[in-house]
Amino acid sequence: MNNKRSVHCFQVLSLVFFFVLGIQDSVQGRLLSVSKKPHRNDAAAYARWLVSQNSWGVLNTISKDLGGAPFGNVVSFSDGLPNEGSGIPYFYLTTLDPTASNALKDKRSSLTISEYPLGTCGKSDPENPSCAKITLTGKLLVVDKNSKEEEYARSALFTKHPEMKGWPKDHNFQFFKLEIEDIFLINWFGGPKPLTVDQYLQTKKSKLAFVLSKYI
Amino acid sequence: MNNKRSVHCFQVLSLVFFFVLGIQDSVQGRLLSVSKKPHRNDAAAYARWLVSQNSWGVLNTISKDLGGAPFGNVVSFSDGLPNEGSGIPYFYLTTLDPTASNALKDKRSSLTISEYPLGTCGKSDPENPSCAKITLTGKLLVVDKNSKEEEYARSALFTKHPEMKGWPKDHNFQFFKLEIEDIFLINWFGGPKPLTVDQYLQTKKSKLAFVLSKYI
């Protein structure tokens, strides 16, 4: 009986392991539990927390229609299931909106997020450096259709933004992602925190990936 | 006694009239009471309400350091005293931050604001068109030093953001404004609302300017 249990446990663990590896492979960023606000000196963890806890931000593209001006647009996003972020922001955008059509002409983009609407800034002004803000700059890309990553994006977005499931089918909504190339994070006085994209995506933890622990 | 009162009243009215004209002249946008959420079909009033009620947004510039990418940054702003907006967003920015230094090289800019953090969107998702969003596109300019407009900007910003008064003097903070050239407003289904800059700045009201009424 004990042996049977061990074999069963091993099978489940193997499945979970390959499932997690599969997701990692398709979404790049290491999955991470990010429900608790990290210490401000842990720039990577703080950035991941900020991205994971927010549900919306401003997505910026270059607008040819407006003389090449930077055009910001309020969008919803998700980087994963609740409290299980990948660090990579996914979007559900229609080309009826300028942002998606701008990105199809010029991929340069940034996503800007504030800690202020989370309500964790105390009495600080939204522009006070102790109220964190992050700008992820990179390329705004359409997620490959019928790929594992599209499945992941759909699940990540529709879980955090349930009404998206019912948005009009004839509006040509597509899944996009921001391929991050640069990170600008301010979460305290003294200027932006040094933080590479690799540090951000692969944030180290002292324990095994928390995702595994949920299935064992 | 009645005559004296009339003369006194006339003098006060004249002073108020020229005071208001003076402000109008220096800040362009007609001052407007904007505390109550207007009907969604009144695009100009809705846009002015959205700008006046918010205290922060994302200000976008072109970043030469990031290959000409659109760079959004969380900033605080004010378009006037509380419930007395001019429609023109003013900012208090330091060139230690990329946004101000970007703008000194390339003035193209936009300010993006969401209704979502105001808490008036009900259960709508932040990307749902019934949760309003506005993008003001134009030029990000330094306000002329020692001008009436600078006085106005200081008063508008420091009233809504009191801690700004104490921000470090050696950080080279300056007053900026967005000279609006285009308005993108979504506050319901059916795409952006047609709205010219002139309609936005000069929003008509059926009564005399409310500012006068406060002094009579």
TrEMBL record, chains A, B:
Top-rank lineage group of the source organism: Eukaryota
Protein name (Swiss-Prot/TrEMBL): Uncharacterized protein
Native source organism of the sequence: Melia azedarach (Chinaberry tree)
